[in-house]
Amino acid sequence: MSEITNKSKRQRAIMKIGTHSGTFHADEALAVYMLRLLPKFSDATIIRSRDSDILEACDIIVDVQGQYDSIKHFDHHQRGFAETFSDKFKTKLSSAGLIYKHFGKEIISQILNLGIENPSIDILYAKIYAELIEAIDGNDNGQSQYPDEVVPAYSIKSITLPGMIAALNPAWNQPSDDTNLYQQFLKASQLIGGVFVDLVQYYGNSWLPARQLVKVALERRSEYDSKGRIVVFDDFVNWKDHVFSLEKELNISGVVLYVLYSDGKGWRVQAVPVTESSFQSRKPLPEAWRGFRDQELSNLTGIEGGVFVHATGFIGGNRTREGALQMAQKALDL
Questions:
Q1: What is the pLDDT of residues 16-62, one digit of tens each?
Q2: Which of 5, 184, 269, 304 is the most buried (most CB within 10 A)?
């Protein structure tokens, strides 16, 4: 091995990531893991301490020291701290959110092997914050998801990521020396970091390609209805999340009423809900069709190949693509 390579490895090895000692939490466990995904910090030593001089000797410090400068110090505990991910969010950042805000695009680029200038990076950067990092921020800062008067029916503490991380701290009757805490912190960081990487890979390798398919289908919707109210997918794709976000992007919110897709055996006509999580449809399938099946349904609709229409009208089926399309087109006028 060359002298230059040896020197390079020695330089990487002396990088230090500082965080506080004692009880650890999900935010700094994730912040440290994310930093170590970057080439600059991949071989970094993790320093856990409350000694200011020891921490200041580190190259980057998270969740301690009461400072945030976006360069070396990434703490959120100081008086007056109110940093958020962007003006679209109200949740204050924790150390995880701070590291993600400043290094997230580079981290995503590393995980997915995408160029940092790839336009997909910006889409994923915002999505992953909203789907994972914001919850870590809110939990660590004590910002409730719900109004205080809402009382949960049961506890989910043990199955949330912060709860799982907290449970890795030594119990009151277990060794809590620095060595044991350090090893447990590494375990916690690996656990939450693995979840983060899996999530990034899902959104990069599955969610993002689905988004592109939905966008193309939305752009073709006028082929099936002059007002663009029907979208057709020749193969099933997870479309709900994308339809709502892309409608906003394309300035067509509320336009799409029915989505058609194959279920592998026949075709489905699904009414688009009012919101992604709503059980109320923008325009349910006609009341007169609801609850009927097979030939009886075909007789009612005048469309051959009828399979069913759900009693609430949110979905129906036909044996063929053409039959399903005719159902959607006819339902628009009823």
A1: 999 999 999 999 999 999 999 999 999 999 999 999 999 999 999 99
A2: 269
